[in-house]
Amino acid sequence: MAEQHVSLRPDNFSEGGGLIDDFDGKIADIRFIMTDYDGKIPSPVPCARVIFEIDGEEMEPSLYSIGGSDDFAPDESGMGIVKLKSKATLTKTSKFGMFMTSLIEAGFPLNKTEDDSIAYLIGTVGHFLRKAVEYKNMKKKSDNDREQTVLLCTKILQLPWDAEKTTAKKGGKGGKVVPKAVDEALAANIIGIIQGVLVQADGELPKKTLLSELFKNEDIKAMSADDKKAALKMASDDTWLKAQEEWTYDMGVLKMA
After folding, report:
1. Do residues 26 and 110 share a domain?
2. Domain limits at 133?
3. Which segments within the chain are labelled E, that is strand?
4. Which of 46, 51, 141, 166 would be a feasible disulfide site paired with 29, CB 3.0-4.6 Å?
């Protein structure tokens, strides 16, 4: 039976039942994973793992709950969610639902969201603030105040496809994001891999499909953990993609030059 994706557009979510980390930063990576929250729960559940970058440095991953493991699971690429039972929609009261809704309310265009992938969010720069979570008629899961919060977007500073560079500051104060040095040998390797993927796709490929193909690529899988992370980060970076001469990149689509 073919996988049936769950809609990731906030306008398709159903209705479900300012403390710390005030910063400007970039969504350096986002994908769906299964996690047991470092052993805090007996069985892994699906969630969205978001890695924010501030002043050129990556933060520890932020996890956004989605729902139960009986209802949803990440797809093969990690960029989409498939339903396992009859439940067809994510809820607005899940932490992932709150996060996505906050992005739209902060200025991310709804018509640029996609049903079956969240890859388009990589590279988004915004202001993020942790806010308290309160559920009516529901008992607290924990007395830990931090666990009763969710990190949300309060303002979009730059959309992924914008050519202009935006200053990213921590706590509303700070300097420009300084790009890390790129390993030239690794860059040359990933360029060659992307060219191969483009050739197999008849010379044209949406970025979200490229990322999905790279996750399955045998040469990528054979890399060390650090090189794999760096290679996928390059392939996710719109600025890096636009700077290469081997292809053109515009509006989320790569084309062989």
Report:
1. yes
2. 10-158
3. 23-35, 45-54, 57-58, 62-65, 72-74, 81-83, 125-132, 149-158, 204-206, 247-250, 253-256
4. 51
Are residues 110 and 228 located together in one domain of the fold?
A: no
Tokens of residue 73, six digits: 């699971």
Q: Would 2 be classed as within a structural domain?
A: no
pLDDT digit string, tens, across residues 215-249: 888 888 888 877 888 888 888 888 888 888 899 98
DSSP assigned state of 20: S
Pair 202, 195: CB distance under 8 Å: no
State the Cα–Cα distance between residues 109 and 103, nearest whole angstrom.
Answer: 9
Whether 38 and 131 share a structural domain: yes
Which residue is listed with tokens 């980060």? Answer: 233
Res. 25 pLDDT band, cuts 50 70 90: very high
Of the candidates 128, 131, 135, 127, the one whose C-alpha atom is nearest the C-alpha of residue 150 is 131
Nearest to 149 by CA among 27, 65, 68: 65
Are 246 and 199 within one domain? yes
Helix residue ranges, H only, 90-205: 95-106, 184-200
Question: In total, how many domains does the chain have?
Answer: 2
